[in-house]
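Hello,

Our lab assistant flagged a job as stuck in the queue for most of the afternoon. It eventually completed. Since we weren't sure the result was trustworthy after the delay, we are filing this so someone can double-check. Below is the sequence as submitted and the structure that was eventually returned. Let us know if re-running is recommended.
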Amino acid sequence: MSKMSRRRFFEDSLFATFAAGAAAASLSAIPQTLFAEDKVAASDRLGVLLVGAGGRGGDHLNFFARDKRTEIRFVCDPDSASVERRCTDIEKIQGTRPKAVADMREALGDKSIDIVTCAATNHWHSLTGIWAIQAEKHCYIEKPVSYNVHEGKALVAAAKKYKRIVQTGTQCRSMPANMGIVKFVHDGGIGKVNFARGLCYKRRPAIGPKGDYPVPANVNYDLWSGPAQIRPVTRRNFHYDWHWQRYYGNGDLGNQGPHQTDIARWFLGVDRFPLSVISYGGRLGYDVEKKDPDYVDAGDVANTEVSIYDYGDKCIVFETRGLATPNLDIPVSEGLGTQVGVIAYGKNGYAIQGAAGGQRYDYSAAYDLDGKLLQEFRGGNDAMHYGNFIDAVLANDPTMLNADARCGALSAAVSHLGNISYYLGENNKVSIDELKKALESVKSLDDNAATLARTVEHLETNGVDLKRTPLALGPMLEIDVDNEVFINNAEANAMLTRDYRAPYIVPAPENV
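-- returned structure --
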């Protein structure tokens, strides 16, 4: 890539600022003439390899094909139909057709590629980033940046060793609504804050009965499986529903959760592993949904999960719900809460990221202890986060990033740790009385009994018979924060990594 002139660089930065300033608008609402205005020669543009042609890949291409500082030159996906469709979409936007490849290694050695942007399946995220970094490319990697804790540590080590710019796809970090409310909290706007509650109340229906389904004819299953061992396809919908199978995905605690675990950490200012974690939950209610008491769907991750993270003087509780549920309101007022967001509890009030119900990433608000509005914070879209990444790449300055590899690895790790406790205890079915008794000894800044009571009420409202299908309680796992491993628990430590399949091996951090 030839170097831009100083004048051109500042023109481009001005454009980026304008795009970022369209805070309340979606990317598609930004005038297309701005994207199409050709002030940057093709030879000056950053060449992009897009890995992952599924749903989230469409969001990636919608930005990188329009921003005049970038040009998508390769699209990679093991699904030949999806990759060709995306190449056609890109050609319509940017005027040139990228090359379609099934194996990213065909493109990583191409000198015209400066950036790799990854929207592949979770179990490919870290290896995509590591391979790209080793090929001296900068990376934008969707959340979670890792499928497990080991992978996050390896990605961070690679970014540091090769001095590459790596942005995590937690776009909330670049939205003015979130930046504003976090600053408000850090400046003492609701008093001292030691506790934050992350919420993923997202309706997720059953994914169909477990079976033996054919691999789609247009999918290269060896490449799709990558780091995972080759296994039969047991889900009806090959694409997307891998999220709900732990061999490839991380459930909603690891899918949606990294957005909210990230903001919970941000509110509390915690940049390390917790001292301990414990989870309880289950995959419940789908037999009621299907009106079949013997129904068991192909998913094997929790659709109801509560994880408690002890940071010593601070605490995070994360609640995942996949069945129908209303908002979680703040204690003093109905209608002031969220379904997908974070509530920070202060001495003098509450801060709600994603306030006003729903999934409003571009709106947050703070309230006093009586529920009176203190301040609103608005604005944000995905373009801001992509733009922040490109700005950092052009400046070759990782300190400009709003969500670097370490930030992403920590927020993903919170989800991974919670899931490990649940997985280790999923066969430990307990009665509500037994669970309530066990939680009495769990250190937390939350009211553990009240959160359990709300969870039980939620499940019973959805017709779940907790005597027939009880909740499972995971073990309390203590953590060596310095070394980021569990203390005296070999079974839990084994789940920090996986059995990799050559040649798709995520190396140890010291070997990247």
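-- support follow-up --
The delay was a queue issue, not a problem with the job. The result is valid. The longest strand covers residues 193-201. Confidence is low (pLDDT under 50) at residues 1-38.
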